Structures are given as C-alpha cells and as structure tokens.
Amino acid sequence: MRGLVVAIAMLASATTLPSVGHAAPPTDQDIVDSYQYMLSRWLVLRQESLDLDEGFKWNQIIHRKPGGVTWANPNLDVAYSEAWIAVDQSSCTLINLPEIKGRYYTVQVLNGWGEVTTNINERNFPDHPFGNFALCLKGADVALPEIVQRIDLPNKRSRILLRVELGPNPDEAIALQNRITMKATGSPTVEGPVVKFDFPITELPGVEAVDKTAEILASEPDINEGMAEMQSKALAVGEAAKDPAQRAHVDEVIRTKAIPAFMAAIPKMGATGNGWMRPRVTGNYGSDHQIRSIANFAGIWANNQKEVVYFMVEKLDGSKTYTQTYPKDALPASKVGYFWSVIAVDSAKFQVIPNPLNRFLLNKQSGLELNADGSLTLAFAPKKPEELPEPNWLPTPKGQPYNLTYRFYGPSQDIVSGAWFPPRLIEQE
Fold it and tell me: pTM of the predicted model, to two decimals?
C-alpha cells in the first residue's frame, strides 16, 4: 500500500485521485467494472506505443497517402494526417492550415482517454477558419504570433487527426494536406510512457494490465465528471493484484467475466433500426465509460456526433448477397452536409478486406447509378448480382464474416436526433 500512496503523492500536482476506499478485496463486479473503465486508457496508451515505435516524433505531423492508415474502421474518403503533440507551461504547438473551401476538413484533437477536446474547422471557428492555431496547455503563459487562434487543452499530450475530404479531385486534397504544417514554440518536456502496452487487439490483456493503475490514472486526468467511483475500484483492483493470494483470482475474473462481458456489450452499444446499430455516443462520452472503451477498441479516434454519425451491422455472411435500396426522396446524399460512405471490414480486427477489384467503399464518387424510379440499390456480395450496375456493388469475402460501417459527415437533423437509420439489408436467395 505504501507504494500506491507514494505514487499518488508524487503526481498529485497533475491530478487528484480518489482514495482506494476498499478495506476488503474487490468484488468480481468491481473487477469487471474497473476493467471496462480502464480499457479505454489502455487502448490509447497501446496506440501511442505503436505510433512512437513506428517513428512518430512529438509535435511533427505525418501526412498519410489516401488509404495509408492501418487502424480499425478507417475512413477511406479522406486524406489523413497524424501527430502526437506535447505541450507544457513553456511551449505550445502551432498548426498552420491553408484556406480550404468546398470540401470537408477538420483537425480533431483527442486526449489520452480517446475524448475529443476540440475540432478545428470553419464550423467551430467561423471567424478564424484557417491560418495559425496554437494548441496550449490551459494556463500556460507562452508568447505567440500576433495573428493566431489560441486553443487551450486540459492535458499535456494529445493525439491529432486531420481529415481532408478527397472528393472528386483527390490530387487537390492531397496538395492542401501537404501545405498543413506543425511546430512547437519551445522545447516541451515529454515524459516517457507510463506503461508500454503491446497486446494484439484480438487478445485483450489480463491481470498484467492493472499493475500500474495508480500511475496510469495519475498520468492524465479523466476530463469527465463522476468517475471517482470507477477510479476507486480500479485502484483497489490494482492493489489486490499485488497480493499473490489474490492475483490469480483477479486474472481469472478478467479472463472469464470482464473480457466476455465487454465483448458481449459491443453488439448492444447503441440503438438499432432496420437491422443497423448506431453507437449511443461517440467522441465525447460523459459518464458512459463502457462505450468509450468500445469505441477505442472497434474504431479508435472516433469523432463526435456533431461531425459524423456511424451506423454498423456485424457478422454478415460474406458468401451471401445482400441488397439495400434507398427511396428517391431519401438518397444517402440527402442525409449529409458533406459526404457519406460505406465500407466492409473483417469481424476480428475491423480492417479493410482485400478484393480483386480493389474497391473498398461506396460513396458519392463511386459513379452510382439510380434505378428507373429514382431510387438507389446497393449490393454487398461476393459476386456482382445480375442486372445491378457494377459501380453499385461492394465485393465481400466469400466464406468469411464481415461488418459494414456507414459514415454520414455533416449528418442531417433526423440522423442527429436518432429518427433515421439506413434502409434494411435484404438477403437474396
């Protein structure tokens, strides 16, 4: 216990943690609850380690080629740029954006729990939609250029994800992307990782993940209110795991109860309609720590629903043919202010599935052909259905399960309110 008290005391200036508050060993339910709570932070720490091992440098932007990212459920409509930034009392990070008109763009900033702290775009900063932006630690007294939009962050390190819509002219989008620059104003202090996670996404960690719970919680505050009870449970589980008499039991509960409960929650993570599931919240999670962990697991770096709404259906049979028809008065393009798309990913790692056509999504650039009555029929099948225009077909993996993910950027009000879902998939004989 003394080690826990020392760790908390040393980091008290960064955040305030609840006391352990458990005289007795944690219950099995405490272990399950705390596992689902901490998993969102572990997944971000895991991605941070993977990125730094790949070659990321702090406060240096990486421009990806279209389709050049490997995380779960990637967006194939955009050119991505990525960075990890570090700020402190002496240094901010400057981002310079060129003027971007007629296409979607955003600079999404996330904290160490996967929470969106800001989106830089013309919707959130109408009086300063481009030019210099300074991401600074709240309260930092740093001299900045004269014309700059300062944005205060609640944390010292953040993940940056820029999206520029490819649209009908990808070369133009890439040219804009390459004009985006980033630099630190000073030399911020960057501490090493509090823990380096390298577990495969298909094998969630056991008791070893809780060994540095106090240090992990102290390393970055959870900006959401009402998390004291979960943190108290997590601290108690971490302390119990240090006791050889309890460690094996903690591991058993994690593997036989916590992980199965988490996996069982994924298909229930939101409202359903027409066979589609919509996550109940993304990007900014409030008290819903379970959906935050699910989002970080199934599609890390999810944005909030002001920017995009996602719809999913899981474990379709890749050998079967499914069709989907939009009525002429509710075509997908009518449901967005920016763009929409649908992709197929595998059911294990949520990665894009190779196919002979190298066609990985359907969207408004796909050359989709309307039916004679103005409706739109799409097909998801291993073989193109007869009489269906080829552009309307997304190949699927014969003999394998897969998932479909829809994105609606700049969603219409009936999507935002939860009143609308994509049309039902119809299995063909």
Answer: 0.88
- Count H helices, E strands: the chain? 9, 19
Q: What is the DSSP letter of 339?
A: E
Burial bucket for residue 306 (CB in 10 Å: 0-12, 13-18, 19+): middle
Q: How confident is the model at residue 353 (pLDDT cuts 50, 70, 90)?
A: confident
CA pair distance 114, 37, nearest whole angstrom: 12
What DSSP character marks residue 193? P
From residue 350, give the alpha-carbon distance in Å to each of 128, 211, 427.
Answer: 36, 28, 22
Give the model's pLDDT for residue 299. 84
Asked whether residue 231 falls in the same domain as residue 335, the answer is no
User: Beta strand 116-120 with 105-110: parallel, antiparallel or unpaired?
Assistant: antiparallel
Name every residue whose Cβ is closer than 8 Å to that of residue 398 and which is 6 or more positions away in sequence: 318, 319, 382
The tally of domains found in the chain comes to 3
Tell whether 137 and 219 lie within a shared domain.
Answer: no
Is 223 in the same domain as 323?
A: no
Q: What is the number of alpha carbons within 13 Å of residue 80 lying toward its C-beta?
A: 18
Strands (E), 50-124: 62-63, 78-86, 93-97, 105-110, 116-120
Give the C-alpha distances (Å, rounded to integers) separating 280 from 5, 119, 349.
37, 20, 21
Beta bridge partners of 120: 107
Task: Say how many residues make up the chain.
Answer: 429
φ, ψ for residue 116 (rounded to 5)? Answer: -75, 125
Q: Is 190 a member of any domain?
A: no
Per DSSP, helices labelled H in 331-427 are 413-416
Please give the DSSP secondary-structure letter assigned to residue 351: P
361 and 235 in one domain?
no
Give residue-wise pLDDT tens across range 193-252: 899 999 998 899 999 999 999 999 999 999 999 999 999 999 999 999 999 999 999 999
